[in-house]
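User: Fold this; tokens only.

Assistant: Input:
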Amino acid sequence: MLKIEDLVVAYGGIEALKGISLEVEEGKIITLVGANGAGKSTTLRTVMGLVKPVSGRIFFQEKDLLAEKTHHLAQLQITLVPEGRRIFPKLTVMENLRIGAYCRRDEKEIKTDLEWVFSLFPILQERSWQLAGTLSGGEQQMLAVGRALMSRPRLLMMDEPSLGLAPLLVKEIFRIIKEINRQGVTILLIEQNANAALQIADRGYVMETGRIVLEGSGRELLANQEVKAAYLGKRRDQG
């Protein structure tokens, strides 16, 4: 579905991505894990056209994404849930959700998708006329995901969806990510919470300083001693 080939991105002469290649298979959950500064967010920003690469290629359903304008990506059914949520605080919950469907004209289907979002996040229905800026952090994250779903994406990219959330809410967000995927949405997820991300991922890539250093199924990476030592809080001698 999404294919990245030999992608190089530089900021002021410093390479943030050093020739990475990865593939996102349709219907799967793919995760990128790594420390801050590894290049995870840069990867998503480049896919969205927010950063121009020095070299490399990005294809979505065999279409060259680097030739597309960022505002056309929603029409291609690619959506990003950005780090920090980026909701519109002075608009209501309902207005935020409606903005997610701004390029759609199928009102009947929009109403169907609203019902779907409310089934995933009942609290959003309860708060539908509340200003988004008055929601809790967890509720704002739910709204950011719900808004993205209103564009009816085939590929949903998520940048640190669990950041800053309480442990119970983290568990709930990952449960909902699995449910969204079960209902047919392909997901590319970047997370510092490697343990939670790899547990739900079909495939994972480990990034370090702009390079992909490991890849495999979520289960394989969870069991990998290097990954355990670096990201899962276990020393190698603990297995």
